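re: ur question from earlier - yeah i can do the single chain one, its not a big deal. heres the input i used so u can compare w yours
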Amino acid sequence: MKFLIKNLGPLKQAEFELGELTIICGNNNTGKTYATYAVYGFLSEWRNIFSIRVPEKNIRQLLTEGTTELDIQTFVNDAQNILKKGCESYTKRLPDVFASSPQYFTKSEFQVHLNKSDIQPISKFERTIGATKSQLFSISKKQDQSEITISLLVEKEKVRIPNELINRVISDALKDIIFGHLFPKPFISSAERTGAAIFRKELNFARNRLLEQMSMDKDVNPIKYLHKAYSDYAVPVNENVEFARHIEEISKNTSFISKEYPKLLDEFSDIVGGNYTVTKNDELYYIPNSNKRMKLTMDESSSSVRSLLDLGFYLRHVAQPGDLLMIDEPELNLHPENQRRVAKLFSRLVNIGIKVFLTTHSDYIIKELNTLIMLNQDKAYLKKISEDEGYRVEELISVDKIRVYIAEKSKIRLDKNKNKTQVQTLIAADIDPELGIDARSFDTTIEDMNRIQEAIIWGDD
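and the output i got, formated as tokens:
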């Protein structure tokens, strides 16, 4: 899956591919967060922006005969067109995604490119649609068959469902059958996450005050009022706020990691230096490993504890295979040793089936990933190093799973008939099994520092 972005923030034009581990690095104000937020917004909204119309004759047949069939191949053949129109619709929504003025997005473009060979319907599908306590109709696709069967589960005479609603439900099922396995479910941890963690109670209080004011003013449109109150922040930031606000509810769920990989959660606990807990009274605390009798609120805890809060709850209560975990600057507030450890954590997540998308300024994270890449070879001396240094096989990662992009200025061809022009873009970094990632945006700075320090130390000789 490739993304093409044009005229979005600092990025004039950029094309990048989503890997199992995707990393964007580079200087400040070079477009890393713009690319990240745009991808997150699309993956969150694609079901709403894609349009599939079910033929009216099939809806009439369903309501009169109780059943109808659709040939999925008809919609698969139109998938590229559905995708193109969906991207055009999403481009128009970019001002809302970034909570910014439409004037900054008049020339923006957002495109997604899929290979035709990838657009294959899932082999089997079952879904039952209900209202209140009754089941209304079912949608099913049998193993490796191209027909989708929609059947009423109530007597035809009792059906009181608007045709538009029926179309929407069937359309959503078609989208999941054709595209659902191609677009991972995203979870994002924005750079503003520490603020959301510490002010979560205040956010709840402010929202409740807003609701009270709305109930007192009968002339206020509540939906418009709430939208206005929450439209000052980019969608990913709003998502972090909502996640922090609902942590007590989220803690009642169990992720597949909790069930199948509990040791991974123990390793995360070592990184954060303790555990998060929600009491019976729905109070959130952090309990340090060094003193398990101590309970600290978020404003009493360290910045690293707050920075890792949503990641900790995601891993323990939300994560499912095939997800896309997106983290803007995972190194926030972390000691270099813990930056290395989160790099190993991300590699493990990739190896158990969770895709990871990072933006980073951390040389420690990149260098540790380099180590995991270089150790992942069938050579005796590398296995000895891995064992001596405490690396485990499940932490090592293959280069074919990784895509790394550097946000920088480079000469690219903006038009097929024009010469190359130097603009802000994303350039794919070289990744070698023996040498790791060529992250030159970090290397240049480190080389400059080393050169200056060598001159200071040896300059008088």
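The longest strand covers residues 402-413. not sure if urs matches, ping me
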